[in-house]
Amino acid sequence: MNYDVHFTELSYKTLAVLTRYMESFLGQEEAIRLGHQLLDFATNKLGDNPLQFPISHELETLGITDYRVMLVDNYKILFRLDEKDKTSYVMAFLRQKQNTQELVYQITIL
């Protein structure tokens, strides 16, 4: 792995919210498995080459250009990249249809 991957407190909170939400559709066991799969996917892909993922277009329209997004099936993983330290910081896990701008706004006012 070329990059370190760190999960922020917020990323764990949003992953917990996501898995609780998905539990009603998938069942508890599958929702927990989904959470583990997303963590593993983020660790592997961001550790290998985080630059392959684009700047978040949703946030770029607000002038926020330091967040990148990784799409995984029906989910998004929002992260920031510190190229100098070769570290990816996972910020949030969302459903693909979930509004990233709204999430950032909610986080900002809390």
Q: Based on CA inertia axes, which overall geometry fits? A: globular
What's the pLDDT, averaged over the residues?
92
Class computed from helices, strands and strand pairing: alpha+beta
Number of domains: 1
Share of helical residues: 40-55%
Number of helix segments? 4
The CATH C-level name is Alpha Beta
Find the count of extended strands (DSSP E, 2+ residues).
4
Order of helices and strands: EHHHEEEH
Explain what the structure shows.
By secondary structure, the chain is α+β, with helices and mostly antiparallel strands. It has a single domain, classed as 2-Layer Sandwich (YaeB-like fold), CATH 3.30.2310.20. Strands 1-4-3-2 form a 4-stranded mixed beta sheet. The protein is globular, with a radius of gyration of 14 Å. It starts with a strand and ends with a helix.
Task: Give the key terms.
YaeB-like fold, 110 residues, alpha+beta, 4 helices, 48% helix, single chain
Quick gist of this model?
The protein is α+β, with helices and mostly antiparallel strands.
Could you outline the blueprint of secondary structure elements for this entry?
Blueprint: E1 4-7, H1 9-26, H2 28-48, H3 57-60, E2 68-72, E3 75-82, E4 87-95, H4 100-109
Helix pairs in contact: 1-2
